[in-house]
Amino acid sequence: MRFFSTLSLLASLAAATILENGQVRKVNFLDTKVASIGSNSTGWKTYGPNATEISYKGRWDSKHISWWAAPGIKFGFTGDQVAISFGQYTSPGVLVAYRLSGQDWQFTNVTANSTHQFVSRSTPGLNATLPSQLPLSFELRVTNWAYGVQLSAVHIASSANLIKIPNHSKTIEFIGDSLTSGMYATYEAFSSFGYNIGAGFGNVEFSVTAYPGICLHDANCWGNPRGQTYQWHQTSDTSWRASQIYGESPEKWDFRKHPAADIVLINLGTNDNNTANSVSNTDYLNSYMKFVADVHEVYPKAQIILMSLWNGFYATGNLRAERSLQRRDLGGILQHNDIAPQWHPTDVGHIKIASHVMQYIRIKFGWEFGATGPEVQHETLYWNDESGY
Ligand SMILES: *[C@@H]1O[C@H](CO)[C@@H](O)[C@H](O)[C@H]1NC(C)=O
Ligand SMILES: *[C@@H]1O[C@H](CO)[C@@H](O)[C@H](O)[C@H]1NC(C)=O
Ligand SMILES: *[C@@H]1O[C@H](CO)[C@@H](O)[C@H](O)[C@H]1NC(C)=O
Ligand SMILES: *[C@@H]1O[C@H](CO)[C@@H](O)[C@H](O)[C@H]1NC(C)=O
Ligand SMILES: *[C@@H]1O[C@H](CO)[C@@H](O)[C@H](O)[C@H]1NC(C)=O
Ligand SMILES: *[C@@H]1O[C@H](CO)[C@@H](O)[C@H](O)[C@H]1NC(C)=O
Ligand SMILES: *[C@@H]1O[C@H](CO)[C@@H](O)[C@H](O)[C@H]1NC(C)=O
Fold first, then answer.
1. Among 140, 166, 335, 387, which one has the highest count of C-beta atoms within 10 angstroms of its own C-beta?
2. Which DSSP helix (H) or strand (E) runs through 97?
3. What ranges make up the beta strands (E) of 317-387?
């Protein structure tokens, strides 16, 4: 199984055309680029990236650069326009998903040193919003796992205000590799089961700390210089982009400044177990034991689910119960058509994993589903309404 080959392949994959069963996917990416908007220029009110009304989802650093898989922002606003300026550390042509007030996702490519207008008077749904659904909300997610954006300003109508939208009270964190980060899925991280579980609940905050090719054990695997036992403590991931900005001194992630995870789902080991990377079984097991203890140290109350895609689920309690792993065997949920030729889940495979894991979490930990309709995964609506052919 080849899970990963080289970093340069990675970079080119990220910018490639989206393929669907080997065919170019028909997509509708809107052109949102506008001329640059200065601070508080006529008709606009400008907020800096540190405005407390902006909630950052996933990992962002002190320069407001996004990292890992499917990071995003969310805020409420009044008025009828939203534009965002992206800073110099934004990847070239990175595809972002965005939406107004929980309506279907739209996609657009953004790039460094540019301003994009996402909401205007002509945005469908803007006028249809009922007063009871106000304020309007705006969300944006980076779709690729290696690429990121740097937020430099948010602009809204001059007489309008940004509004803080409270966070959900429960938080889940995913720690994984290419499987959790959606490598080879059509919208990459945005199609991944990590994203699908978090967004699928509809009433939880989530963070997908996953990167293709990464090992659990701290070793260079498929060009990722460090393993998750080290990298999970850093704000940035193992990408080439991160090495260009931070070299070998990334910013540490300050867990105390963010809500503690209630559930941590770990899916690691596929790369440790690959002969291309020199990680012994003993190193892997020892690192796994230490890592689970480490996660409990950081989040003392978290429930940790160890997930092994091909064998089932294992849950550990919150009392350092590594040695009495509880096993829930859901083996056999993935069939032939859920695994793509590159040995990663298909879009439907990701959705299937997500729905099983969500049921597992509901049954095991009593988390009820809170989504009431908004789209979770874009462009997976296939149907037949032809009765005879
Ligand atoms: C936009 O992003 C998609 C997906 O990464 C890519 O296929 C396309 O080439 C990009 N377009 C531009 C104009 O950068
Ligand atoms: C824009 O104007 C508002 C007041 O209307 C002010 O609070 C804010 O700091 C200004 N933003 C910038 C970037 O100058
Ligand atoms: C945001 O940063 C600016 C400087 O760039 C500073 O003047 C301002 O006080 C900061 N605001 C908050 C809410 O931290
Ligand atoms: C929600 O949590 C995020 C991540 O810690 C944080 O950036 C944001 O300020 C929080 N939002 C609110 C409204 O408390
Ligand atoms: C963005 O702006 C910065 C600062 O002006 C500059 O150094 C950088 O080359 C620009 N990047 C691009 C892609 O234009
Ligand atoms: C929303 O209302 C404004 C003002 O009445 C109008 O100019 C605009 O065309 C409407 N937008 C849509 C999408 O219908
Ligand atoms: C992968 O895991 C299997 C089952 O535990 C083990 O027999 C094998 O030696 C491992 N391979 C590598 C390269 O770690």
1. 140
2. strand 94-100
3. 326-328
Report helix, strand or coil for 183: coil
Ligand with an atom nearest the CA of residue 128? 6
pTM, 2 dp:
0.91
Testing ligand 1's pocket by substitution, the residue of 90, 95, 98, 142 carrying the most ligand atoms inside 8 A of its CB is 95
Concatenated DSSP letters for 365-382? H-PPP---S--SSTT---
If one counts every other C-beta atom within 10 angstroms of the C-beta of residue 23, the result is 8
Cis peptide preceding 135, ω within 30 of 0? yes
Verify whether ligand 1 is closer than 6 Å to residue 32 (CB atom): no
For the chain, give every domain's residue range: 31-163, 170-365
Residues 170-365, CATH architecture = 3-Layer(aba) Sandwich (3.40)
Token duo for residue 208: 């997908």
Report CA-CA distances (Å) from 57 to 34, 63, 191: 25, 15, 16
Could you tell me the mean pLDDT of each successive run of 10 residues in the chain, 389 residues long? Answer: 39 61 88 95 97 98 98 96 98 96 94 97 84 87 97 97 96 96 95 97 97 97 97 98 96 97 95 91 94 97 85 48 43 75 88 94 96 87 86
